[in-house]
Specification:
Blueprint (H helix, E strand, L loop, with lengths): L1 H6 L3 E6 L6 H11 L12 H15 L4 E6 L2 H4 L4
Parallel strand pairs: 1-2
Length: 80
């Protein structure tokens, strides 16, 4: 999938899901892997994350952006 997106000219961000098992670990990993700065992640609220990621993706000024969540099955083991 990543190769296909790259060939189509997408700007790609990868979220490393190996250690994502709850809301806090997701937001912490998103702060590392997704477009920065994500100022509102520290609030630990989904709405704040949504607003922040939306605004930061707009700042990229790329017509096509993809977020690939690797190892997403890990979050299912803990009920995220």
């Amino acid at each position: 999938m990543k190769n296909d997106l790259e060939q189509r000219g997408y700007c790609i961000f990868e979220l490393d899901g190996r250690c994502v098992h709850d809301k806090s670990s997701f937001l912490a990993q998103a702060a590392v892997d997704l477009p920065q700065p994500i100022e509102l992640i520290s609030l630990n609220k989904w709405d704040a994350f949504q607003d922040s990621i939306y605004m930061n993706l707009l700042d990229i000024k790329e017509p096509n952006v993809a977020i690939i969540w690797n190892d997403a099955q890990e979050m299912l083991k803990h009920g995220l």
